[in-house]
Design brief:
By secondary structure, the chain is mainly alpha-helical. The chain is built from eight helices and no strands. The termini are far apart.
């Protein structure tokens, strides 16, 4: 990770660390909005005054919303991977998309609209795993703390549950992240089975958790910030609507 960091600084300056920022923002607007919105709607629909959804039900709801989010966010995800991967390529092989919209237009024009959904199945599988492990584990951990430890529904509880959710999500999604990145960054189409066979032959089982530490450094703070802001947003919304917590 440190070597990659130094390589990008040396060859692309500090701004090179933010290659793909516009694509990353577009991905969050499509992928995250869809999965969080659908999950909250499903959870609210199946919550009654007498009972809340069980943990398996939360997992099912999160899996459904994650799949829909994965499909909705796939074009931006492909673009995000390509723009960030450019820094590791020789200048002659870089795609040099100016920004997210330029990338989407060029991909459609040069490779056809199907290129926007390259890797959609492993990406959707990753989105299912990510959302189920992240959202369901957060709600499950928070509920367990409130019911069994005497904790209050406050910032400390939200932080602890979100930290746990980030750890779980990183561990579960690491193998799929590796596959997704390699499929989307490939210049030539390769079958998923062929890709797995080639990676296993070259690297053994070590590829499964390759990049876990940088993934957690990225996903851990992101998960914590997401749930802390989400909880405060819901609290403000309920206050404005005059609904009790």
């Amino acid at each position: 990770m440190f070597g990659t960091f130094v390589h990008i600084l040396r060859n692309d300056s500090f701004l090179g660390l933010y290659h793909g920022l516009s694509a990353s923002l577009l991905r969050q607007l499509t992928y995250s909005t869809t999965r969080f919105g659908v999950y909250e709607e499903l959870k609210e629909t199946f919550t009654t005054a007498k009972s809340a959804p069980s943990f398996p039900s939360l997992v099912a709801m999160a899996s459904t919303s994650g799949f829909l989010g994965g499909v909705a966010g796939n074009p931006a995800d492909v673009l995000n991977v390509r723009m960030q991967h450019d820094a590791a390529l020789p200048p002659s092989q870089r795609r040099n998309y100016a920004h997210a919209i330029d990338g989407l237009l060029r991909m459609t024009r040069e490779e056809g609209w199907r290129s926007l959904f390259r890797g959609v199945w492993p990406n959707s599988a990753r989105a299912v795993l990510m959302t189920a492990s992240q959202l369901a584990s957060y709600d499950g951990c928070k509920r367990a703390m409130l019911e069994h430890t005497g904790a209050r529904d406050d910032l400390a509880t939200h932080f602890t549950a979100s930290f746990f959710a980030g750890f779980v999500a990183t561990t579960i999604c690491s193998p799929v992240d590796v596959i997704k990145t390699r499929v989307m960054s490939a210049k030539e189409k390769e079958g998923l089975v062929g890709l797995l066979a080639r990676v296993y032959k070259a690297e053994g089982l070590g590829w499964v958790f390759r990049g876990w530490v940088p993934s957690f450094i990225r996903l851990g703070p992101h998960t914590i910030a997401t749930f802390l802001f989400l909880e405060q947003h819901k609290r403000i919304y309920r206050h404005l609507k005059g609904v009790d917590d």
